[in-house]
Amino acid sequence: MPKVFLKQSFVDNPPVPSDKTKVQYFDEKIAGFVLEVSRTGRATFYLRYRDKSGRTRQLRIGAADSMNVEQARERAKGMKSSVIMGFDPLAHVEKIKNTPTFSEFIRDKYLPHVKTYKRSWEFDQKTIENRLARAWGGKKMDQFKPGDLLDFQNSLVNKGFKPGTVNRMMALVKHIFNLAERWEIIDRAPTKNICKLADDGAKERFLSVEELEKLLKEIKNCKSPVVPDIITFLVLTGARKSEVSNLPWSEIDMNEGVWTLPAERNKGKSRKVIPLSQGALDMLRCRSGNGSEYVFPNPETGRPLQHFYGTWNRIRRRAGLADVRIHDLRHSYASFLVNSGRSLYEVQKLLGHADISTTQKYAHLTKSTLQEATEIVSKLLR
After folding, report:
1. Structural domain contains residue 115
2. pLDDT at site 96
3. Judgement on whether residues 25 and 54 belong to the same structural domain of the protein
4. Residues of the chain by 3-state class (helix, strand, coil), percent to 5
5. Segments of the chain with pLDDT less than 70
6. Would the pTM count as exceeding 0.85?
7. Which pLDDT tens digit goes with each residue over 24-69?
8. Are residues 266 and 346 in the same domain?
9. 222 shares its domain with 368
10. 37 and 152: one domain?
11. 322 falls within a domain
12. Are residues 152 and 228 in the same domain?
């Protein structure tokens, strides 16, 4: 490894090796600054240094025919300063080179991760394949800027997607990039200043007591042996449709009067204990001995009854409630509790929400309840 003072005249006409494929000339002025000359006469500048673990590393600065020796020497100085400060330039270059594209990250990291805990991962996969991968599939994960995400959000709006749909897609986008940052695939997620769209059309439907009476009347007239009980149990517990339709007897403790929902069946991914009302317990007693491990089985298969939209649709239309969705029964459960004077904290625990802000959007105070609240102060003044 010969040592020379690398001058431009030497770089322009370096000695070419004849007995080996290449030779390296080390600069006498800057330690680690190297000119490598191949048998073909091609000359390239490098910087050799030791990383934090003491390994010798070599980073290419550039070809001698694209920069002069002083330019290369200045770059070497800057790189050496970075190394002294603890930065490994070659590791940085390798990280950039190995950074996956958006599609590679989804295939190798994101989907295998969400499949372990997210029941709606198939929805994510379809959205990614139909929308995100088409726009960003071949782009490196570290090449995204906040503007790219904003442009995508605006493109959805321009295509006529409703604000709620756009917000759901952008929530998925944010989750993907936040995971990439957490796993140190990228230095920082490009999600800054990506805000939700105002969604004035978001549906918040709550049953009144009169509407509930109409619904219960039509439920009693329904001939299905299972669906009326499922709907009634939803009203009595405020549970989610999937939680009730897949309810096994093993989760019910009739003696204690509780329903213990395991973490793997709870959207919040935590074990939830639901106290059961007398009405709910009476219904369960009526369904005991049905010959199935499930509370509400399909009479033909004994398996959970998953699809009953047709029956539900007939019931709600006959009750004059065509706009009421199954999930609105959960909204209404919270609304009835709040309007009866129960605290948001109690409702939060009954619904199994981790964050009380989630409960607040279910808690609907009727006009009469608010009117009663104003009368409290009025009575004090009188």
Report:
1. yes
2. 66
3. yes
4. 50, 10, 40
5. 1, 84, 88-96, 199-203, 268, 354, 357-358, 361-382
6. no
7. 999 888 888 989 999 888 999 998 888 777 778 888 888 998 999 9
8. yes
9. yes
10. no
11. yes
12. no
